[in-house]
Write a structure and sequence with these properties.
The chain is mainly alpha-helical. The protein has 2 domains: 136 residues, no CATH class; 70 residues, no CATH class. Helices cover 81% and strands 0% of the residues. The relative contact order is 0.19.
């Protein structure tokens, strides 16, 4: 959501600055650029999330295949390795060996246990590529749509100011929401995001004004 919000806020600011001298068509240019950017960002984020999750799953399955081959070639060594993993975690040697012998009664269970210890994850913990794609695209689109909203109803500098206000408010909300999973205070995280958004908007607006004056828009 933050990626969509930041990217499209930058696009909206830049195009608004570039078309400041043509207020009659400004909202049209901004809407076209903003909505096109929103769609592109959502598709890019969704496809990127899909490919990342799919690649992670493919890597995991390749590692599983290698682990299975290693167990078939040298089962005792695999069981000893698993026992050592448990001992490192604090389990007494005798208990860890008993546990491993019990697990080894089921080859697939031994494979899953060893893979979990070596790779630090399990197949169940891997992200679903389609779920990742959907959530990535949707959240990006939601964030990207926010800076565009004022231009459906307003024109000129009023629309630019309204877009800046709602975008910075959204930046603060997203930053504050991060505090739910971090140790930082909500206001500190929120203001940090707002400052980043304000800087991004100011820079892109200034660049847009410069490009607009050079290009005669």
């Amino acid at each position: 959501m933050n990626d969509g919000l930041g990217a499209i806020f930058g696009i909206v600011s830049g195009v608004a600055g570039a078309t400041a001298g043509n207020p009659a068509n400004q909202h049209t240019y901004v809407l076209l650029a903003g909505l096109s950017g929103m769609i592109a960002s959502a598709l890019s984020m969704g496809s990127g999330a899909y490919l990342a999750a799919k690649s992670e799953r493919e890597i995991y399955m390749a590692e599983i295949a290698r682990e299975r081959e290693a167990i078939q070639m040298n089962g005792p060594e695999a069981r000893e390795l698993l026992s050592l993993y448990y001992q490192v975690k604090g389990l007494p040697e005798e208990d860890s060996q008993h546990m491993v012998e019990h697990i080894a009664n089921d080859p697939e269970q031994l494979l899953r246990a060893l893979a979990s210890e070596r790779l630090g994850t399990s197949e169940e913990a891997l992200a679903n590529p389609w779920v990742s794609a959907g959530s990535g695209a949707l959240s990006t689109a939601v964030g990207a749509f926010i800076p565009v909203i004022p231009f459906f109803f307003l024109n000129g500098m009023t629309a630019v100011i309204a877009a800046a206000v709602v975008s910075l408010a959204a930046h603060f909300a997203v930053g504050a929401a991060k505090s739910l999973i971090t140790v930082r205070s909500w206001w500190s995280s929120g203001f940090e995001m707002t400052a980043v958004g304000a800087l991004e908007g100011a820079v892109t607006y200034g660049i847009g004004v410069l490009l607009g004056s050079v290009g005669g828009l």
